[in-house]
Amino acid sequence: MSIRCLDAICVASGTMGADWFEKTHIAHSIKTGTDAADLVAVLVFCLFPKKSKLLAFPKIRRAKAQFRYLITPVVAGCVAHFCLSTILMPDSAVSLKMAAAWMVAVCVALSVERAIVTFFLHQPGVVSKLRRRVAIVGTGAVATDLVNRLSLDAGQAYSLFGNFADNTRHDSGRKLDGTLDDLIHRSRRESLHAIILAFPEAGDAEAKVRNVALALKPVLSDIYVTPNLVSGFDRVLPCEFLGENAVFVIQRRPLSDIQLVEKAIVDFSLAFCVSIFLLPFLIGVALAIKLDSKGPVFFRQPRTGKNGREFMVYKFRSMHTDMSDLMAARQTSRDDPRVTRIGKWLRRLSIDEVPQLLNVLRGEMSLVGPRPHAPHTRAGGLLLDDALAEYVLRYHVKPGITGWAQINGARGELVTIDDLKKRVAYDLDYIRRWSLVFDFRIMILTIVREVFSRHAF
């Protein structure tokens, strides 16, 4: 997406340069036709179907691949320019010169852009950011062959995260990097983009794939399976290529890299602006808390965030310091005696959540997303991860200050498993439907519905 935007900007810049040249050296006496032809040429270039695979890293660094990507839309834009200018102007020779000028200017602009992009894509720091880290789960010849091919053939596009056994016992003659539990724990500390399930063919392959995929649901990663395991149970899975290796998709990350960048930019920008705007009010709230009861202004509590990583969430303190429950072993209930006089109103108006803007600025939370829970929170007497298998899917996105569940009334104390199911259903619906427009809608509805919510206490 970024490269396509740069291409559009360069074509527009080249077109402006060509327009100036056309009007001063070619068609200086012609008043109509040039602007319309230029505009149509730009639109044809931008809308012309292109081979997006040629933009994949590291192909984008190859001049031949980029020539193949750009030449057809540039020629199509040039032809459109010539045809329209011929219709609007009587002199076909002038039309041909104008189309040629447009093509030369656009080619120069695109060549400069690609040269700069290629320079940056050869820098080690950039390469390390673009390289996809791939883990292989499985033992035997299939997994070994895949590990070797990824290591030797993929070049700088991929790096091996490790080869892991699907259980604690394995018969592989080579040293592995651990078990599934080791993979899950490492993925929470290190970046992981893809996991490939590569087991030997066996009668229980279908069940093994499903069981391992279920165990890996908490991991924020694309999950693929090798073709030898697909034919037996599902031929309709989408197919992709990792390097030269064909694999079938069984799980995708909910948001693409571009969508993650878009969401992060909006989160940081809005959180920064709102923090500055509310600063005088927040200072007043802090003074009220200090005057009402002894203790710190802020309450910090561990919460589980994206990919299962723990972080410390910031809130205005709404309870008496000596009664605060750091690990949330007991959830807050209506008319809870631990809540202070000021805290009652802070919680009712959701003002106690405002300091989480700091978590957003630190990149630990988003403005909108599933609400984070403390590690020891329970529903129906069970820890949340144990109470509902789908709960771990919430870890695939950053937790939010507000969310789709909150504005639909699914907030407050989790008493039963049904309470948890309702909240998780809204959270997963949000993840499936995510868009920036949806985020803005939720933020607006939060202000309208939740400031005086009957569910907050």
UniProtKB/TrEMBL annotation:
Q: Where in the cell is it found?
A: Membrane
**Domain of life here?**
Bacteria
The keyword Metal-binding appears for this protein: no
> Which Pfam family, giving just one, matches this sequence?
Bac_transf
GO BP of this protein? polysaccharide biosynthetic process
What molecular function terms (GO) are annotated for this protein?
phosphotransferase activity, for other substituted phosphate groups
Q: How does it sit in the membrane?
A: Multi-pass membrane protein
> Would the keyword Transport turn up in this protein's UniProt record?
no
Q: Which UniProt keyword terms apply here?
A: Exopolysaccharide synthesis, Membrane, Transferase, Transmembrane, Transmembrane helix
Cellular component annotations (GO), alphabetically ordered: membrane
Please state the protein's primary subcellular location.
membrane
Q: List each copy of the Bacterial sugar transferase domain by range.
A: 263-448
Residues that span the membrane, as ranges: 69-88, 100-122, 268-289
Q: Which family does it belong to?
A: Belongs to the bacterial sugar transferase family.
Please give the PANTHER family that the UniProt record associates with this protein: COLANIC BIOSYNTHESIS UDP-GLUCOSE LIPID CARRIER TRANSFERASE (PTHR30576), UNDECAPRENYL-PHOSPHATE N-ACETYLGALACTOSAMINYL 1-PHOSPHATE TRANSFERASE-RELATED (PTHR30576:SF0)
Protein name, per record: Exopolysaccharide biosynthesis polyprenyl glycosylphosphotransferase
